[in-house]
Fold LacI family DNA-binding transcriptional regulator.
Amino acid sequence: MSYTMRDVAKKAGVSVATVSRIMNGKGEASPETIAKVKKVIEQLNYKPNLLAKRLSERKSNLIALLVPTLNNPFFPELVREIEKEANKNGYQIYLCNSDDQREKVEYYLDSMVNHYVSGAIINSLHVDENDLSILEERGIRTITIDRANFDHSYSAITVNHKAGAQSAVNHLIQDNHCRDIVFISGPRDEKSAIDRLLGYKMALEQVEFPIQTKVVYGDFETESGYQLIQKLLMDGEKFDGIFSSNDAMAIGAIRACYEFGIQIPEQVKIVGYDNINMTSYLHPRLSTVDQCKEEIGALAIKELINLFNNRSEKPNHYELKPKLIIRESSR
Ligand code: RIB
């Protein structure tokens, strides 16, 4: 059985960053902790120096791409854009699907090291600055996108979701005269969902007449959009607009409306978020907010190549502007 740095950390009861520091002889740990970690390294027969040596000598043309799920079409579409750009520049993608589980994230973070990847594009709520530091220490340049928590000192690409949500809600209120709006939010702990909720609230604060609102929370999957709207309709709730925090849940919401004989857009207008490819083939075609997948792909690869070529290059943070796309569902 081969052990990882995480196994050592767990057994010694310290963080992975502490193990990494001790292995690199960088101090900043008490003599007791150093002794404890060294003992565990010995017990597990962990070979940190060998691994580190091999890693500093070998690098591949692989770029790891960690995604939270492949169930939602947004992610395969994003993967495709990133892969296209990587291939254009002579790199291949090592796809790591975490299924939104910390256990799988850990498995893949270790595996990135073992596969000698040159860079990593991280899209996960379950990765923190500690994890990024370990990758960088192993010579793997990193950039976070989308779901990642951006409170770190490495490169990042974000999208201004507050502005995106605000434009969608303004469109429902100003262009479509909706006065009773349901917001299907994404998960409560997910940064991009929280920002869209803030954007929704900002749009409501700007109107001078009363708007009835209701916020319901889904999990970004189609089924949750379906269940939430079905429940509201079964409870006899009335509304004339729906803003959904992503397209997948909007598709579920459309299905629920259809089953209750509600006409879209005649009785209820609906706007989604993401601009996944199938939204322009739905009936009715879904209005949505485009979150620049092509741009994210191109920028992520460009930034990594820049970091590969200039090892001393400082990380950058980019913010992209999403764009409202108006289609039949809100005309
Ligand atoms: O549809 C999936 C959603 O989760 C996207 O909007 C993306 O931004 C993500 O975090």
About this structure: Residues 293-309 form the longest helix (17 residues). The pocket of alpha-D-ribofuranose is lined by residues 72, 74, 146-147, 192, 220, 246, 248, 273-274 (CB under 6 Å). The radius of gyration is 23 Å.
